[in-house]
Amino acid sequence: MKYVLVTGGVVSGLGKGVTASSIGVLLKACGLRITSIKIDPYLNTDAGTMSPFEHGEVFVLDDGGEVDLDLGNYERFLDIKLTRDNNITTGKIYQAVIDKERRGDYLGKTVQVVPHITNEIQEWIERVAMNPVDGTNKPADVCVVELGGTIGDIESMPFIEALGQFSYHVGAGNFCLVHVSLVPVLNVVGEQKTKPTQHSVRGLRGLGLMPHILACRSTEPLEKNVKLKLSQFCQVPVSNIVNLHDVTNIWHIPLLLRDQRAHEAILRVLGLWCVGKVSQEPKLSEWTERASKFDKLKSPVRIAMVGKYTGISDSYLSILKALLHASVALDRKLVVDWVPSCDLEDSAAKETPDAYEKAWDLLKGANGVLVPGGFGDRGVQGKILAAKYAREKNVPYLGICLGMQIAVIEYARSVMNMCGANSTEFDPATNTPCVIFMPEGSTTHMGATMRLGSRRTFFQVNNCKSAKLYANANYVDERHRHRYEVNPDMVSEFEKAGLSFVGRDESGRRMEIIELPAHRFFVGTQFHPEFNSRPGKPSPLFLGLIAASSGQLEHLLQRSSGTVSSPSRCITGTGAAKFNKLFKEKPLNGLVTTYFGNGSSIHI
To answer: Would you say the pTM of this structure is higher than 0.70?
Structure first.
């Protein structure tokens, strides 16, 4: 097993996750099997209880792991399936050591950071690196490990020590360290400054780690003399200094690395450059096409994202990616209008009239509406109003998790005249509980107590839009994250009133997909389809939303009644075999990877 460690210096937010993912893409294109591990030095056991405002979205894996959003980048870039163990946290490591101590595994010894914590970290990395992640039973050739945070952070010190020991343990030729740093330009002097990177590398070396490759972030390409200076003061060969300057979309990053021969430098450090199984030229034609055709999309499609975390785009990162995948597949330029759900509420009309007017203008100007998941009652009434607007005005609507529950509540209130209809999450004493707490849920513990991971949904109706989008499958496996569900005792009343529950779990009592048959496109899902969307393999339901929002839904449904085949989404039925054929006949033209928030281009 070979290991590539990616660390970061100077400041956070440099793009270590994208860099690590791009290195994986580059090595995979050389014919190697790749797996990834993310180390997060925080004390939380996992990301499940962390606020999106503080840490971005919580990405959910097939096994129910609630992990850092960077694992979503790894899965999308490398088209692999990771597990909860691929996300290491300080909380997990300390818990594992304490459990061993309580069992007596250390035989009465004094348990210390060195060697017990550091040994646990090394053993964890070695164990997880051997787990197959690409759908085969074969382990990876290379494990890319990203260390979260910035070199010098006090909470990451045990990991730095462990990784220093680990590099010695696995030996030269099996360990490559890529250090991501910043080369800023001060407006006053107008030149690229190397001192921050010099200090960062000096700090790294002082902690026992020597970088083999420098990945320098900058706004513009590095000047030749800057590379020479970095090489001299950081003791890294010029050929091993790569520049990751700003680009139009992140799909250019693997191409930047390739063009600067980063794969050659990494393979030489790992002793793989002359190995027969490794291609010396990475095969990235598909990535090249995606990146080069990014700017060719001109016809816009506007989607109103109605949520409570709209101030931070990372809160909905996977949803944005899924929208992009679907938009490009249908030759549309995505425009996302962020609509804070609180600003749609009647109270906002009095308290913040300007924000109220702006929010409603954005909603009414959108081609489609998406209400994502969330927790808590803040902004719920605004989401209900958005669902009502989309239903009454025949505007395409996709509700995910809470977005589906919101649609059910709105339907009960507006169509079925159940004025007090609500979720017990927002009103525990409601007389009309349309949405209830799941019986198996915990009322005392929050962490890892939801219905999590990949679960099976069975279609109840074959001619519904959702089933057609999934190629007339009998069932699909999608990822979940919720502790409330539609009240099964009220389902018959809803269906009599015209709301169709077209997807249910294996018991038939847990509602998974809703539709309004007479509506242009009104779909809600209890699961999160965005977590399985991939570049070139967009989520069927996101395809449906974009198609309906751009006048292409009928054509899409007629095209073999399906979308893209994906190994990460289990689909069976009469239409499953049509997936590959569909896109062999008409391949995708590329992939947009920038979304446009209210007209402004933002790289994600």
So the answer is: yes
